From TrEMBL:
GO terms for biological process: protein deubiquitination. This is Ubiquitin carboxyl-terminal hydrolase 47. It comes from the Eukaryota. Residues 160-533 form the USP domain. Residues 70-120, 393-421, 811-847, 863-963 are annotated as: Disordered. Residues 874-890 have a biased composition (Basic and acidic residues). GO terms for molecular function: cysteine-type deubiquitinase activity. Residues 947-960 have a biased composition (Acidic residues). InterPro entries: Papain-like_cys_pep_sf (IPR038765), Peptidase_C19 (IPR050164), Peptidase_C19_UCH (IPR001394), USP (IPR028889), USP47_C (IPR045578), USP_CS (IPR018200).
């Protein structure tokens, strides 16, 4: 029998779990004997998947033979064998899908140890599930038997989780705690929503009520909280803000109190959560006591006292410290009203009344004044399961008549004893309810409770895992129904034990020293909620049958909604979703998604696609059909003749999340007949080439077989295109720019590299072009141009900037220039780039000038690095193309602000141009077009070589091994013509159609378009326009247009400002001093840039992006004192007086005065400091200013740190409390920092609304022109708010 079993054929079963989006990619593999029954198959699958048998179904997967049965799951109780049920043995794969049963997800099988352990040995989980491996996360929180699949369906605990929207774990923890509080849940159920009085969407109590009903009755694993947060008035951005759970508790309770006014629940929060304490000061000489009563909703307990080296070890210890009085003596003596003098006194807090639900906040978040950062205290603090609060209540005060109403002395001192002036342990911003004066209380509250009634039991621990910068919240909650502890971790709910609660104490089991928290776990308790043990008040949860009528109606409504959602999910599960394409006779190629039920026939699907593609009235329905299509290869795989009544599920291979193919709705004319497409055929698009007219015709589609020979293939093309097969040349384009001449007659198409979809070019003429080598032939050149030429739609600017005289000057420069060195702008405010001769050295650097209308920026000039100028060649348009990527200043940014600098600060923005002839300006465009396709004389008559991989790369070096510009070796085709009416998606008067070789660089492309734009290429920018009309600037001038494609849109705009202008390339050699480099540089600047400068009136500075940094002194040596490298950049600054800096220990700071009374900023003034002292800076500034009562602030952002005059007074951090410049918040450690100063006695100018608006417009214009942002707004923590009216007020003028 054993031998027979071994020889029995086996069925390979591959099961896909589609019950959840997270398991859809998982596969289970079983290799079972073919005689295995279906019931045994279900048992094996249940065991391997970890599901309860009978709670799931198995259906056939995506094999075409079995798809017809996919609608009916396999019978789980059947005794039929696998072979009898249609399984194929012998190593063939049988695909199955594990599905829901009756719309409900499978139940997870409980894990029980075979040794017979109790329930505590079952799998459990506590802690931040998605943060395994993060610092502070203990692996002890999950048992080794924990299975990932166990979290994918509703928890076996019977409780429902909450979905984390993004960072709303703090909200989920609080909501689950409130839900598990019987008194709160029952009171919420007893409140009835009046729909006619309020919108249900904005009603916080109603949305909480709905959420609690779903938590109690839903069959889902987890439910969303978006309806609740929407009722708070939050938008989606709030989901990405993590807040403090204690802060949320306060704010939400305030919101509920406002919503419940004048209802039975009006005082619910106070009845459940509010306690009373007395804030007192007692004179130690006469015994007189000044006091007031305050209320509290939670008690904040200090973990580690300020300045202490040891943390409190337990909640009881922290509570004792909370009520420990403080002695006021010495300079802190208290003025006694009775003694009429200052006396020693005792100040403290006493608890008068504890709430029914006691909330303790463990203050784990603190501020470290050494590092000036927020920190989290992870020290160990124990808390009991039962807490006796009787030692902490003041019995005398509870009995005292003074606690019943405010005495004269209490009222008199109410202001001085305000809760803002409590002891340091309690006077925190957390106490938003401080200062409430209570009226006389009811007699029941005045009766002192026996100590036995002050025992509280712990039922909720809100845990924080992480640091002060952020982390994760979850809740450990004890059910009052069965006494079991559960972990509510967002959507995951699991049982835990008392040992798991003890793990949230924090810290380590060792000493409680100062550094005990530094190496402790970051997962610890943050909020504790206790309930008073009072049988007369302790409530039980309302059962479903005891719900009020309005809650029963709500339960039924939510149940129907859930059933509808389940039915919709079932429909989705049986719907095939596949890409659909159609070559519309009018709208050209259209794309959509066809969603069709798997049982719909091909005929019905065709009719749906016909309506979707809007073909009604254009093409008859019987002239359309659906075919299998490969969009990537543009390949028609097969047609479905005779299968019009076949279900789509069978044709498509089942319902899948994605398909490896698409569908094409093919159309024909009524007089045509559809061509059948058979599997195995290849599609060939044949383009006929006419060498005489140099044109390439539109393609003709031909289907062939891979085993056909080239001769047979030529005969096939001759019939389709009407050409002669004898003189035919066939060229296959296998991939981009890979042209292969097919000249071996007996070679098959497969051997030549044909694939599913192919493109060939055919030519059949009697010209002698056949006799020359293919790479030298006219056919090859025409195809090469065709393959690399793209058609762009270019929108020209509205009008040319500047005067007509400037335009004429530009034309004269173009016509009169013969070398690049002669191209200089006569505009004194705009330095044009002058090419320098090629130079080589160990280290190179270059200079760039900052041209702006402000005083300092006119003095600072920048330098941009290069590898030497390109040689001048009047025949070569592209001899001055950009040199390398590293020369572009921060190309990563393409914003409209930064690109203004990036596109114009580089040397290659100004390119050499030797074109001649009349120039057509943008506004006078006619049908004139130019063709720029030249080669240098050095290459004339030589055989051309084409390295397509190198040419296609936009980031490779543009020089070949011989040092020649690649532009000299490229066939750079360019032709421009006005837009026709067919292309008039833009105004045809301002639009060009440009046919250009995409191997051309952006710099050369701009150069060729200069005649149409009307200005030099440095004075306009290029923007690429995408399908959604978004515009992104193209700034990398050395990159080619290879990323562009046909009919892409390009837009030009003028550059009105040039904040940083390139000056010249130069060479700084190793061992050279700064003064020596200046001596070599100044003649170069005089010759090329017409700058006559004195060596004692210029300085070189480090260029840190846009900021002028360290000042280089004359005696500094390159590579010894100053590290330099190839493509290095420095600033050149022109000084008004000789250099004042003499030592590197000095600090050069740029100061600028702010005058609030005039709302104006003064000019920049440089201050040289001997140290990093703030006092020295103020003293030096005083020498510039007639008053010495000054406030200073450090500028923000990049140089020149521009800021709106409307915002500078509030946004900058004036007069920071620091003594040195190199600490926070100044952080001035290098030359070039900008410091603003103002007179502290000067008040801001009062502006009317009209004056403010006018000034705002001027500031916006000023800051945008200088390339700086209108305002600086650092990211700040967002305050937690709940809006009672459904959302924040949309005030456009509000800051």
């Amino acid at each position: 029998e054993i031998q027979n079993a071994a020889e029995e054929p086996r069925a390979l079963c591959i099961i896909q779990d589609i019950t959840s989006a997270k398991t859809v990619n998982e596969r289970l593999t079983l290799n079972l004997p073919a005689s295995t029954t279906l019931s045994k198959l279900y048992e094996d699958v249940a065991h391997k998947a970890g599901y309860v048998n009978g709670t799931f179904g198995l259906a056939w997967g995506n094999t075409q033979d079995m798809v017809s049965n996919s609608s009916a799951p396999l019978d789980h109780s059947s005794e039929m064998s696998l072979s009898e049920s249609g399984f194929e043995p012998g190593g063939k794969r049988n695909f199955l899908q594990l599905t829901d049963k009756d719309g409900e997800q499978p139940q997870i099988a409980s894990v029980t140890d075979s040794s017979g352990l109790d329930d505590s040995s079952q799998e459990r989980f506590i802690g931040p599930l998605l943060r395994d491996g993060t610092p502070g996360y203990s692996g002890d929180y999950s048992s080794p038997s924990y299975s990932y699949s166990s979290i994918l369906s509703k928890s076996e605990t019977g409780y429902v989780g909450l979905v984390n929207q993004a960072m709303t774990c703090y909200l989920n923890s609080l909501l689950q705690t409130l839900f598990m509080t019987p008194e709160f849940r029952n009171a919420l159920y007893n409140w009835e929503f009046e729909e006619q009085e309020e919108d249900p969407v904005t009603s916080i109590p109603y949305q909480l009520q709905r959420l609690f009903v779903l938590l109690q009755t839903s069959k889902k694993r987890a439910i969303e909280t978006t309806d609740v947060t929407r009722s708070f008035g939050w938008d989606s951005s709030e989901a990405w803000q993590q807040h403090d759970v204690q802060e949320l508790c306060r704010v939400m309770f305030d919101a509920l109190e406002q919503k419940w006014k004048q209802t039975e629940q009006a005082d619910l929060i106070n009845q459940l959560y509010q306690g009373k304490l007395k804030d007192y000061v007692r004179c130690l000489e006469c015994g007189y006591e000044s006091w007031r009563i305050d209320t509290y909703l939670d008690i904040p307990l200090v973990i580690r006292p300020f300045g202490a080296s040891q943390a409190y070890g337990s909640v009881e210890e922290a509570l004792q410290a909370f009520i420990q009085p403080e002695t006021l003596d010495g300079p802190n003596q208290y003025f006694c009203e009775r003694c009429k003098k200052k006396c020693d006194a005792r100040k403290g807090l006493r608890f008068l009344h504890f709430p029914y639900l006691l909330t303790l906040q463990l203050k784990r978040f603190d501020f470290d004044y050494t590092t000036m950062h927020r920190i989290k205290l992870n020290d160990r603090m124990t808390f009991p399961e039962e807490l006796d609060m009787s030692p902490f209540i003041d019995v005398e005060d509870e009995k005292s008549p003074q606690t019943e109403s405010c005495t004269d002395s209490g009222a008199e001192n109410e202001g001085s004893c305000h809760s803002d002036q409590m002891s340091n342990d309690f006077s925190t911003d957390d106490c938003v309810d401080e200062g409430i004066c209570l009226d006389s209380t009811s007699s029941t509250e005045r009766v002192l409770k026996p100590k036995s009634l002050l025992t509280f039991e712990l039922f909720s621990v809100m845990v924080h895992s992480g640091s002060a910068a952020g982390g994760h919240y979850y809740a450990c909650i004890k059910s009052f129904s069965d006494g079991q502890w559960y972990s509510f971790n967002d959507q995951h709910v699991s049982k835990i034990t008392q040992d798991d609660i003890r793990k949230t104490y924090g810290g380590s089991s060792g000493s409680r020293g100062y550094y005990s928290g530094a190496f402790a776990s970051s997962t610890n308790a943050y909020m504790l909620i206790y309930r008073l043990k009072d049988p007369s008040r302790n409530a039980k949860f309302l059962a479903v049958e005891d719900f009020p009528e309005h809650i029963k109606r709500l339960v039924q409504k939510e149940k129907e909604s859930e059933e509808q959602e389940k039915r919709q999910r079932e429909i989705e599960r049986n719907t095939c979703k596949i890409k659909l394409f159609c070559m519309h006779p009018v709208k050209m190629m259209m794309e959509s998604k066809l969603e069709v039920h798997k049982d719909k026939t091909l005929r019905e699907a065709t009719e749906m696609a016909y309506k979707m593609m809007e073909l009604e009235g254009v093409v008859p329905l019987d002239c359309c059909r659906l075919v299998k299509y490969d969009e990537f290869h543009e390949y028609l795989e097969r047609s479905y003749e005779g299968e019009e009544d076949t279900p789509m599920g069978l044709l498509l291979g089942g319902v899948k999340s994605s398909y490896m193919f698409d569908l094409l709705l093919e159309t024909r004319r009524p007089d045509q007949v559809f061509q059948p497409y058979k599997p195995g055929e290849v599609m060939v698009k044949v383009h006929v080439v006419d060498l005489k007219s140099e044109t390439i015709a539109s393609p003709v589609s031909v289907r062939a077989y891979l085993n056909q020979t080239i001769t047979e293939f030529k005969q096939l093309i001759a019939q389709a295109a009407g050409l002669s097969a004898e003189t035919m040349r066939v060229v296959l384009e296998r991939c981009y720019n890979d042209l292969r001449l097919l000249y071996v007659p007996n070679k098959t198409l497969k051997a030549e590299g044909f694939f599913r979809s192919n493109k060939v070019f055919v030519e059949s003429s009697e010209l002698t072009d056949h006799q020359v080598p293919f790479t030298d032939s006219l056919l090859w050149k025409l195809l090469d141009r065709h393959g690399n030429t793209i058609r762009l739609l270019v929108l020209l600017p509205e009008q040319s900037p500047g005067t007509l005289a400037n335009r004429t000057l530009f034309q004269k420069q173009q016509q009169g220039s013969s070398t690049s060195d002669s191209q200089k702008s006569s505009d004194a405010s705009d330095f044009e780039h002058i090419e320098s001769p090629t130079q080589e050295a160990d280290s190179n650097s270059s200079l760039c000038v900052a041209a702006d209308n402000r005083e300092l920026e006119n003095r600072i000039r920048a330098t941009s690095a290069g590898s030497g100028g390109a040689s001048s060649d009047p025949e070569n348009h592209f001899a001055c193309e950009e040199r390398s990527d590293s020369e572009v200043n921060n190309d990563r940014s393409t914003s409209s602000v930064d690109s203004d600098i990036l596109s114009s600060s580089h040397s290659s923005d100004t390119l050499c141009n030797a074109d001649s002839g009349p120039i057509q300006l943008a506004n006078g465009l006619d049908s004139h077009s130019i063709t720029s396709s030249r080669r240098s004389k050095a290459h004339e008559g030589k055989k051309e070589t084409w390295d397509t991989a190198e040419e296609d790369s936009g980031t490779d070096s543009e020089y070949d091994d011989n040092g020649k510009s690649k532009a000299e070796a490229q066939y750079l085709y360019f032709r421009a013509e006005p837009c026709s009416q067919d292309d008039a998606s833009w105004d045809s008067q301002k639009c060009l159609v440009v046919h250009v070789d995409k191997r051309i660089t952006l710099a050369a492309f701009k150069l060729n378009l200069e005649p149409y734009v009307g200005v030099t290429s440095t004075q306009f920018k290029v923007f690429r326009v995408y399908a959604n009309n978004q515009e992104f600037e193209s700034v990398r001038l050395n990159e080619t247009l290879s990323s562009f494609s046909d009919d892409n849109k390009v837009k030009f705009s003028y550059s009105y400002t040039v904040p940083c202008k390139f000056l010249v390339d130069t060479v700084f050699a190793k061992g050279m001093t700064v003064r020596q480099s200046k001596e070599e540089l100044l003649p170069q600047l005089k010759e090329q840039c017409k700058l006559d400068l004195s060596i004692d009136r210029v300085r070189l500075r480090k260029k840190t992006w846009k900021n002028p940094g360290t000042v280089f002194l004359d005696y500094h040596v390159y590579e010894e004192d100053i590290s330099i490298s190839s493509n290095w950049e420095v600033f050149l600054e022109v000084l008004d007086e000789p250099e004042k800096m003499k030592s590197m220990s000095q600090l050069a700071v740029l100061t600028r005065r702010w005058s609030p009374s005039t709302m104006k900023l003064g000019p920049f003034q440089e201050v040289i400091l001997e140290s990093s002292s703030v006092e020295e800076l103020k003293e030096k500034v005083c020498l510039l200013h007639d008053k010495c009562v000054l406030l200073i602030a450090c500028g923000r952002g990049t140089f020149p740190c521009d800021i709106s005059v409307l915002e500078i007074h509030q946004d900058l951090d004036w007069n920071p409390k620091v003594s040195t410049l190199n600490v926070w918040p100044l952080y001035i450690c290098d030359d070039g920092a900008v410091v603003f100063y103002r007179d502290s006695t000067e008040e801001p100018l009062e502006l009317s609304e009209d004056e403010r608006n006018e000034l705002m417009k001027k500031e916006s214009s000023r800051l945008l022109k200088t390339g700086h942002r209108v305002s600086y707004s650092p990211r700040k923590e967002k305050a937690l708010k709940i809006y009672l009216d459904g959302g924040p007020a949309k005030d456009p003028g509000q800051d």
